[in-house]
Structure formats: C-alpha cells, structure tokens
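Model it.
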Amino acid sequence: MTRSSPVAVALGVLGVVFIIVAALYALGVLQIATSSTSGPHYKHAILFAVLAVASFVAANFARPKTAA
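Modeled.
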C-alpha cells in the first residue's frame, strides 16, 4: 500500500472540520440530527471529537515517512 501526502492532508482537514462541528454541538449552535432543539448536545460533541482524533491518527499513518 502506498502512502500518499494528499490523503494525509485530506484526513487532517477532515479532522479540523470534525473539531469545528464538535465545538458547535458543545455550544448548542448546531442542531443536526437531533430531535430536540434546546441546549447543547454533549454526546454528539464527544462523538465528533473522537472522530477528529481518529482522523488525525489516520493522517499520521498516511503521511509519507522520511528515510533516516
């Protein structure tokens, strides 16, 4: 399997997007896929934070390594 720099960049950008969405859920601004419209949704915020961490870990594995 070849390692690709564009894939690593894309996963990093996706991680940043997940962080932004998590912050919006934690602040109660974003109400996507929720039945109620009041207050922050911390479970959704935690889910997106975990997805952000997973994206950053995947980006680390996808980036090209330099030979030492």
